[in-house]
Lipid II isoglutaminyl synthase (glutamine-hydrolyzing) subunit GatD (Parafannyhessea umbonata), 248 residues
Amino acid sequence: MTSGRTLRIAHLYPELLNLYGDSGNILVLKSRMAWRGIEPQVMEVHVDDRPSFSGVDIVFIGGGSDREQKIVCDKLLAEQVELKAYVEDGGVLGAVCGGYQLLGESYLMGDEKVPGLELVDLYTDRGEPRLIGNIAVESRISPQPIVGYENHGGRTHLGPGVEPMGKVLYGHGNDGASGYEGCLYKNVVGTYVHGPLLPKNPGVADYLIARALDRKYGNGELEPLDDAEELAANKVMYDRLMAGEVEE
Ligand code: GLN
């Protein structure tokens, strides 16, 4: 049965920003839409494209090394005005790690301060050591703890009006000190969680889909799916982390 609904995903720079399988997030979004009769349309945006974000329902940006991040940021700055308008209009945007850092005012690459997209009031500086390892986060956007893997030298600091995605239950999060992870602003979700993020965290996938449906069709209600496998994977990871059974 099809619902006659479609959602258009803009996947930014898949060839550059695909650390730890971040592109797997797109597969999860597509599947969870298709299982509900919502037609997914994916527009891959490559470095020399000049994309239009009108008609886009979900933008996704993965993580990358500093080098790749710099290439991408130079290109993306050309789209800043359009992306800012998209976000302010309630456009859904998911960003992971390097992509998350790009959302802010700036980030530090070595000693160089690289300007960001200024979509969310945050900035990223650096610290030692790199923050590496498994992570679990309690968040209002997921019924289960969000689990995954983080690896970043950057420390992200949120401005006063920006809500974190959640509280760190295990691992480091935004800066290794605040106890918070990621950001939520309008319909933007930024996070350091790779893994990729969505396969073991179906609640986060559904949050993005529901927000996009609500914006486009005025109704974000989602038919439940059988998530037995996804939730078993989530639980095994969470339980092992919290029991101290995983060597970092
Ligand atoms: N280059 C960034 C950092 O190390 C992001 C890395 C990543 O996307 N995992 O902070």
